[in-house]
Amino acid sequence: MKTLRRAEDAAEIARRLASVRSDSVRRWGRMTAHQMVCHVADAFRMALGRKEVTPAAGLWQRTVVKGIALYLPLPWPAGIRTTGELDQEGGVATPPTEFAADLAATAALLQAFPGEAATLARIRHPIFGGMSVADWLRWGYLHTDHHLRQFGA
Question: How far apart are CA 120 and CA 112, in angstroms?
């Protein structure tokens, strides 16, 4: 299973992220490519404890859904809603500014993410609840992969 713990998987995601352009066309959803880049950065900030989000899950999501989402070897489907603080249409997410700068910030977060084990171990995911470092590194790969596939990257 792919994870940001493995250097080759992290390099793959970084390469795909670098291929996104401001005019990349979405295959599903409502975000523009620029909004997606900011959303992915906000999700990494949330996982690193730099962006606060409201917990929105019950026992079902923290157990069954978490296990399916993180460890069933299938790509995440289109149409999954995010939490309000990460929703680009909600008014609280980081708004797009300059594409190259936002892309660089997201790439930097992606690169730093695997080295933040001490932080990851204490952060709770708003849907999945408590997560191990391995869970977070798997989530980081899957979440970013999901949005890169959204834009054909």
Answer: 12
Domain segments of the chain as ranges: 7-150
Task: Give the Å distances, CA to CA, from 34 to 38, 106, 125, 146.
Answer: 7, 11, 24, 15
HSE at residue 65, side-chain half, CA atoms within 13 A, is 15
pLDDT digits (tens, 9 = 90+) for 116-140: 988 998 999 998 999 999 999 999 9
Instruction: Decide yes or no: CATH 1.10.10 for domain 7-150.
Output: no
73/90 Cα distance (integer angstroms): 31
Are 106 and 16 in contact by the 8 Å Cβ rule? The answer is no
Q: What share of the chain is helix, strand, coil (3-state, %, to 5)?
A: 55, 5, 45
